[in-house]
Design goal:
Rossmann fold; 10 helices; three-stranded parallel β-sheet; single chain; alpha/beta; globular; six-stranded parallel β-sheet
């Protein structure tokens, strides 16, 4: 048995095409162009590349987008002032603070300063609470992309046993909440495994849906996978590879070679979850612009 490969690039293209159609209609009826600002501190190469891809995605849609860059030595007060200005700017519907930040900055305090209505990453405590309650709010982009992959691939979640490996605020916890919600892409029975979980293989092998987001290369071997399970691999890990021109290659948290011989469907790394993250960021930005327009009419 060889697993069906879930093509995240293709699905992300469909999502972005739909976002463009909806945004063009929104702009035609309201005169409002969605706007996204990314705030980045320092010169982390991975963050710089990711931020540029976010801006490009906005520009491809014809949206307003800027990257506001600050040196590594920036103070907490300076970033707070920047966020306050963006909160007050009517052109800006989404504010994204690129993580990680230098250690001298209080990451949580800065995330909490972003207006919940402009929090396109879904990290503000207000939006985290709304997700738990099943209320409309921005949802973290990677978990939202995972749910969209399951829906687009017609992978049933209702009544299924889903195992999430990893309990981060960025992926593990919010994707567990999404799978628990009522409706499409939800109604699952969810178990979250982490570094303190005992006998993880015995839990994982029961999963109809496995979501691996632990940040350890090839952590999940094929023998842990339930035959026919859907495997969503969130990990992006560099491993040495002398045969590669770069000297390394990217692998996921799941051993793709062995898992793909057992699973029913599986995401590749790269080309699986990654493209969906930016696609859902665009969706979140449009949703925030719509909500802003609706609020201004009240």
């Amino acid at each position: 048995m060889t697993a069906r490969i879930i093509d995240g690039k293709l699905i992300a293209e469909r999502v972005r095409a739909k976002v463009k159609t909806d945004a063009d209609e929104f702009r035609a009826t309201t005169g409002i162009t969605p706007g996204l600002i990314v705030v980045i501190v320092g010169q982390n190469p991975a963050s710089q590349a990711y931020v540029k891809s976010k801006k490009k995605a906005c520009l491809d849609l014809g949206w307003f987008s800027e990257i506001h860059e600050f040196p590594e030595t920036v103070t907490q007060a300076e970033i707070e002032a920047e966020i306050s200005a963006l909160n007050a700017d009517p052109r800006v519907h989404g504010i994204l603070l690129q993580l990680p930040l230098p250690k001298h900055l209080d990451e949580q305090q800065l995330l909490e300063q972003i207006a919940p209505a402009k929090d396109v990453d879904g990290f503000h405590p207000v939006n985290v609470g709304k997700l738990a309650l099943g209320l409309p709010a921005p949802v973290p982009c990677t978990p939202l992309g995972i749910q969209r992959l399951l829906i687009e691939e017609n992978i049933p979640t209702s009544g299924k046993f889903a195992v999430v490996i990893g309990r981060s605020h960025i992926v593990g916890k919010p994707v567990a909440q999404l799978l628990l919600q009522k409706g499409p892409g939800g109604d699952a029975t969810v178990c979250v495994c982490h570094s303190r979980s005992k006998d993880m293989p015995a839990i994982v092998c029961q999963a109809d849906i496995l979501i691996a987001a632990i940040g350890q290369p090839r952590f999940v071997p094929g023998e842990w996978i339930k035959p026919g399970a859907a495997v969503i691999d969130v990990g992006i890990n560099r491993v040495d590879d002398a045969a590669s021109p770069k000297g390394y290659r990217l692998v996921g948290d799941v051993d793709f070679e062995s898992a793909s011989q057992v699973a029913g469907a599986i995401t590749p790394v790269p080309g699986g979850v990654g493209p969906m993250t930016i696609a859902m960021l665009m969706q979140n930005t449009l949703n925030c612009a719509r909500a802003s327009a609706a609020a201004s009419k009240r």
